[in-house]
């Protein structure tokens, strides 16, 4: 019987393979190991190599996997993952995937329809549209977000009852606005399950409004939003050219505000810079709290990365985490993107996560105004200037031109990268930190007395700027 279940799982994989690219299938689905199928509970148990793979599958392929298992094993099948959290000690953890109901794609009667209760005349339970993963527990506190986080937690404990209503959060993209407003909603629902909490993007609100006008259901649209206890709207700067949407929102806003219902708004700029805001709306916002979220500083970025590693069971060297935190431009999304890219590279190429891999990923994944130089950048430029190869630089040869290129590479690596001397030595021929310090000292002494050598290094540094 177990062999029959394995055959059913193989059929699932065949169905999935037809709906994704060959690379995606090889990277994310081939590593899955079928364990068993419990006919009593209708549960499929599979093993995945890491919590990261589990999270990626849950984020991107829930519907596809649910459909494939439904075809093979039957309706209402459940999926449970066995995660390998520590390969060295063979420690595993079982986590239940999305429930079968979430696998099903519900048909809609019209495009971009609002929540299914939008047309209901009487209040009833609604889907809050909140991301359950974005909580206060996973929102790391630092100097740049302490005030908004503290206020947000206070609002969740006493929605609509504090002086922080409305609560307007603004800050640059990637600073954690969406996470924070989601966390407020999730915590509110946890403490007050019966409260009607809704998270909606400004874009979706506008789509729903236009749709309601076309369907002649504008009264139902307004009644639905006026029935909420907590309304959370993200990216309100997108209403810049939508006067009718703004007018309708203010009508809803004013109704909720007068009833003491909590309103939370997020934007990439402060209210005074939103041209579509009328004076009366600015006055309303000023009654509550307007708080700025700044991009996280280096220490907070380190804390965020370490938290993600603990949460996902990732093992990334401390020096790599420090390098990412110091090099990325401060966006939380960039930080998570770099970690995800590191894991993907590690899985696909079966390689360890080290500084060289981190440099490659940073260079391709993070857009910054002043692009960080890497050891590879420095070696390429120095070797080209002195007409030697990297193999020559890495060798133990004491040939004058090789030694010169080696010392200059180490000097420039210490000057332009944030790496410790021990790591620089490892990446340039496997030398120790004392060799790097000696090389840097030799170059500095020569620069003081040799003008031609000074000009050479200036030329190399100019090449860096032109390339970056």
Beta content comes to: 5-15%
Residues in helix, %? 40-55%
Total helical segments: 21
* N- to C-terminal distance: 61 Å
Count of β-strands: 9
Strand order in space, largest sheet: 6-7-8-5-9
What is the subunit arrangement here? Answer: single chain
User: Helix and strand succession?
Assistant: HHEEHHEEHHEHEHHEHEHEHHHHHHHHHH
- The general outline is globular
The biggest beta sheet is recorded as: 5 strands, parallel
Class computed from helices, strands and strand pairing: alpha/beta
Mean pLDDT: 79
Which value, in Å, is the CA radius of gyration? 28 Å
- Low-pLDDT parts are 100-122
Describe the structure.
The chain has helices spanning 2-17, 22-29, 51-60, 62-73, 100-103, 146-157, 177-191, 202-214, 218-226, 243-258, 279-287, 298-312, 318-327, 332-349, 355-365, 375-386, 390-394, 400-416, 421-427, 433-449, 451-467, and strands at residues 33-38, 43-48, 78-86, 91-96, 167-170, 197-201, 230-234, 262-267, 289-292. The longest helix has 18 residues, at 332-349. α12 crosses α13. By secondary structure, it is an alpha/beta fold. It is 54% helix and 11% strand. Strands 6-7-8-5-9 form a five-stranded parallel β-sheet, with helices on both faces. Strands 1-2-3-4 form a four-stranded mixed β-sheet. The radius of gyration is 28 Å and the shape is globular. β7, α10 and β8 (262-267) form a beta-alpha-beta unit. The relative contact order is 0.07.
Summed up, what is this model?
With 468 residues, the chain is an alpha/beta fold. It is built from 21 helices and nine strands. The protein has helices at 2-17, 22-29, 51-60, 62-73, 100-103, 146-157, 177-191, 202-214, 218-226, 243-258, 279-287, 298-312, 318-327, 332-349, 355-365, 375-386, 390-394, 400-416, 421-427, 433-449, 451-467; strands spanning 33-38, 43-48, 78-86, 91-96, 167-170, 197-201, 230-234, 262-267, 289-292.
């Amino acid at each position: 019987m177990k062999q029959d279940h394995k055959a059913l799982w193989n059929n699932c994989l065949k169905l999935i393979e037809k709906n994704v690219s060959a690379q995606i299938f090889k990277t994310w689905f081939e590593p899955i190991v079928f364990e068993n199928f419990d006919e009593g509970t209708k549960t499929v148990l599979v093993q995945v190599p890491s919590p990261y793979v589990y999270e990626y599958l849950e984020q991107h392929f829930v519907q596809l996997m649910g459909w494939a298992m439904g075809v093979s094993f039957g309706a209402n099948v459940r999926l449970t993952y066995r995660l390998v959290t520590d390969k060295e000690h063979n420690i595993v953890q079982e986590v239940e995937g999305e429930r079968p109901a979430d696998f099903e794609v519900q048909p809609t009667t019209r495009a971009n329809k609002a929540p299914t209760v939008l047309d209901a005349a009487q209040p009833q339970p609604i889907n809050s549209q909140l991301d359950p993963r974005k909580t206060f527990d996973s929102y790391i506190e630092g100097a740049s977000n302490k005030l908004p986080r503290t206020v947000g937690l206070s609002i969740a404990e006493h929605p609509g009852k504090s002086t922080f209503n409305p609560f307007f959060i603004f800050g640059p993209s990637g600073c954690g606005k969406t996470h924070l407003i989601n966390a407020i909603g999730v915590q509110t629902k946890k403490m007050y399950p019966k409260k009607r909490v809704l998270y909606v993007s400004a874009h979706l609100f506008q789509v729903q409004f236009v749709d309601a006008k076309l369907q002649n259901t504008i009264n139902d649209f307004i009644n639905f939003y006026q029935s909420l206890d907590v309304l959370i709207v993200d990216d309100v700067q997108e209403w810049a050219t939508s006067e009718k949407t703004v007018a309708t929102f203010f009508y809803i806003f004013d109704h909720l505000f007068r009833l003491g219902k909590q309103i939370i708004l997020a934007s990439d700029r402060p209210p005074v810079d939103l041209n579509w805001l009328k004076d009366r709306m600015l006055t309303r916002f000023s009654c509550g709290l307007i708080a700025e979220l700044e991009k996280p500083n280096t220490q907070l970025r380190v804390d965020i990365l370490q938290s993600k590693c603990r949460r996902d069971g990732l093992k990334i060297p401390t020096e790599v985490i420090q390098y990412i935190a110091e090099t990325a431009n401060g966006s939380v999304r960039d930080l998570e993107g770099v970690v995800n890219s590191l894991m993907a590279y590690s899985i696909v190429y079966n390689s360890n996560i080290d500084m060289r891999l981190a440099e490659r990923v940073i260079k391709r994944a993070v857009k910054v105004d002043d692009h960080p130089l890497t050891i590879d950048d420095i070696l390429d430029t120095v070797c080209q200037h002195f007409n030697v190869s990297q193999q020559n630089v890495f060798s133990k040869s004491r040939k004058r031109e090789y030694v010169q290129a080696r010392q200059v590479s180490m000097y420039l690596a210490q000057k332009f990268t944030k790496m410790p001397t021990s790591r620089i030595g490892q990446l340039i021929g496997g030398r120790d930190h004392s060799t790097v310090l000696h090389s840097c000292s030799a170059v500095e002494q020569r620069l003081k007395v040799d003008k031609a050598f000074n000009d050479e290094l200036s030329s190399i540094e100019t090449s860096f700027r032109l390339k970056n």
